[in-house]
Write a structure and sequence with these properties.
The chain is an alpha+beta fold and 153 residues long. 46% of the residues lie in helices and 17% in strands. It contains 6 helices and 5 strands. The strands form 2 sheets. A 3-stranded mixed β-sheet has the order 4-3-5. A two-stranded antiparallel ribbon has the order 1-2. The longest helix has 16 residues. The structure holds zinc ion (ZN) (3 copies).
């Protein structure tokens, strides 16, 4: 296991323990698959990589259950528009997790997680409320071209 992934796994174990839950071996393996990926993955892609990496077939239903757990622990995020999953960029951070905003690159598929100030989210919610629209998901998913792809022309 690469040192940086090991560090994030250890931190994730602490996060779960402090919340009274447990990062079991299978949960840990799913998180490791996501930590090793540079782009978000669908549950089926996680299934394939899990099998290749751990020589064990984990049913897709179990993967969904594990993902739900990891999302609850804020170790993983789901991109609602794409139905893909990615590890949180702030696992190793001690600051409180802000409402995430995802910047999705249309060229390389990489996703950057950026926290948004609570005040801005509240303002956004207020302005949405005035239209009578009921918001189901608060996270923002914005598409564009990442800094690296812009420079590589
Ligand atoms: Zn996060
Ligand atoms: Zn952070
Ligand atoms: Zn890119």
């Amino acid at each position: 296991m690469p040192a940086d992934i090991e560090k994030l796994i250890n931190k994730s174990q602490e996060v779960c323990a402090s919340g009274g839950t447990k990062l079991t071996q299978k949960r840990k393996n799913v998180l490791m698959v996501l930590l090793a990926s540079t782009t978000p993955l669908s549950a089926y892609e996680i299934f394939d990589r899990y099998k290749a990496q751990f020589q064990e077939s984990l049913p897709v239903m179990s993967i969904y259950r594990i993902l739900d757990f990891l999302i609850q622990e804020k170790l993983v995020h789901k991109l609602e528009t794409a139905g893909q999953y990615m590890s949180c960029a702030h696992i190793a951070c001690d600051h409180q997790h802000e409402t995430p905003q995802f910047l999705i690159c249309d060229r390389c598929g990489s996703v950057k997680e950026v926290g948004i100030k609570k005040r801005i989210i509240e303002e956004l919610e207020r302005s949405i409320q005035t239209t009578g629209f009921m918001l189901a998901h608060k996270q923002l998913e914005l598409r564009g071209v990442c800094a690296r792809c812009q420079t590589s022309g």
